[in-house]
User: Fold this.
Amino acid sequence: MHTRSRQDWSVFAPEAIPTKSQVPQLERWLRELPAAPLRCVDIGCGAGGCTRRLLARGDSVVAVDINERAIAALRRALAGAAVELHVRDVANPVGLGLAAGAFDAAVCQLVVSVVGDAQDRATLLRNTHEVLREGAALFISFSGLSDDLNAEYASLYARDLQETGEHGSYLSRDETGRVLYRTHHFSADEIVQLLAATGFVDVQMEEQIEASSRRPEQRARFFYVTCRRC
Assistant:
């Protein structure tokens, strides 16, 4: 993970990590998985919403995140549950430090959109692929290009293009202008190409227009994707 992205996310207040409390696409995917218990990994678990859903299904879970305080809070909240919690950089070029091919399923909820630059995004997916067994299932969600829906996003993309070097990327800032983290919004074609290049197949994609994760009064595009490791 980019040095700046590592710093941004490692110190982020756990209670302020952007998330979605209702993800019907995830619920549908969970219902379609083979019967529990499966061995699952939550990539970039944040405050642990997906981890909790997997545990509620009866699966055993390994959850990883770069934010030490978020992992510590989850460790307290989930004491006694069938979960392992690790402080990990999900875009570490040397991997996640987990056994290769060990997991039946993985969840990665919006993390790929905020992990850093294009190299970080590819590394995150390679790391995920490495720890899944052949045929394992992946649920992964992406923030989508939204400049056609919302003029503010068009402005953000243009404002930060010189620094990010890619259309659809911008620096999320707080109300004072302080940079919180880097965000990338994907096209559908970009998602398909990225997953294919990493070795994921049977890609099924659902596009939704919803409230923005950080700007609930504004509309944004999201892509909810299921696929499997070949």
